[in-house]
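User: Can you help me understand a structure? I only have the sequence.
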Amino acid sequence: MSEKLNAPESEFSGKVALVTGAGRGIGRSIASAFGAAGATVAVNDISPDGVERTAEDLRQQGAQAAAFHADVSKKMQIQSMIEDVRDAFGRIDILVNNAGVEPHASLLTLDEWDWDRTLAVNLKGPFLLIQSVGRVMVDQGDGGVIVNIGSIAGRAHGLAERSAYAASKMGLLGLTREAARELASYRIRVNAVCPGVVETEMTADLRADEAMMARWLADIPQSRLGRPEDVARVVLFLASDAADYITGQALNVDGGKVMS
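Assistant: Let's start by predicting it. Here is the structure, written out as tokens:
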């Protein structure tokens, strides 16, 4: 579990945050941050062990949290999960679309199944969740916040052998803007956070390559990789009242690698 972030404990008191892909890495850090800031956290992941572990760690830290196992690319599983979250906590105020996959293969060798799975999890999943949770927020009548976890790969900086991933993240930024436009009249804000390379389990093998690390660091003005907590802090800001006039935006969290 990530270190406890320095957020006011009452910042999100009474709010329910649903965080997908929270069984490890960035999602786990985001869930922990919301719990530390007073939110009730609905923890989602496709991994039963991971989601239960995160929820239990949050409860041990004094947060109210529960685990919800679901594949975000499956509409019926999403709808069942949302019903379960509402049964457990009564409402959903914040949605963080963090679940994602990142196959490594050249464009000429990428398997069609990997392409389809990547687009299903990274783009269709957020669409289905924004649609379903958006309806819940509209029915509640008091607004809401949606934060999509994108990537600098979806902006001005592509990644080698990540064509499916880059395409899905570029699509996610377009979805973010259009959702922000359509949902603004309901006082629902929609933004994206675009991390660079972050120190998680997903990047562990690549970080073990000294030559790869040297190339990465040479291209980052702050001369370090991101940490899950770096992303979590920005997500909490976007979900807070301090960001009340921010919607339809994508914020890079990359140490200055992409300056646009």
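Now, to help you interpret it: The chain has one domain: 16-253. The mean pLDDT is 91. Let me know which part you'd like to focus on.
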